[in-house]
Amino acid sequence: MSVAMMPCVINTTNEIRKMKNKKNKAGRAFVSGLLLAMSCHATAQVEGAPTASEQPTPQEQTAPATGNSIPVVLTDKIHQINKILESTTAVHQYEFTAVRGQNVLIATPDHRYNQTWRLEYQVDGGEWQAKRHNGAEKISGLNADSQVNIRILATEGARFDSVDYSVVFGSYPHMRYDLHNEEGFLPIPHGRTTPAFLGFVR
């Protein structure tokens, strides 16, 4: 190879290296942009996802997690709530509006009820009342848009790091019937459901 051709070969080699570096940088930028776009899309999906209280199911639905001070607003359905009370000072609150003035069910199907945790309920901003047993309780005589609130808290003197609790809360289960072209509306009879606490309480 002649001496005169060497600068040209060196320049060509340098150009190839520069092109490779540009391709690598462009490739890295493309991959970074793609990853950023994917993470933004995933974030948007999580933020836009409906909460459990917005996902209807035929009979019951799971309520979302709750904090110590902000009540969880539940939809006009029956809700199965299975959560963990984080400490003896934690308080979980839930709100339900009886939009049609319908009966409201509060049930605590847990054998540990009143041993480690307890429930209090309030109707239309009135006095908080203790739920005394773990069976089903019916709140009736409500007006349209009456608000029923419940709160879950530790029993007096209870000691635990955390405790599970289970509550059923919301619109009282019912059935519609059509007898000789005459429509009717009845509560579901007690003992005819699984679980039994969904049945009618006299």
From TrEMBL:
Key word Signal present: yes
Signal peptide stretch: 1-44
Compositional bias (Polar residues): 52-68
Region described as Disordered: 46-68
Keywords for the protein's UniProt record, in alphabetical order: Signal
Protein name (database record): Lipoprotein
Taxonomic placement: Bacteria, Pseudomonadati, Pseudomonadota, Gammaproteobacteria, Pseudomonadales
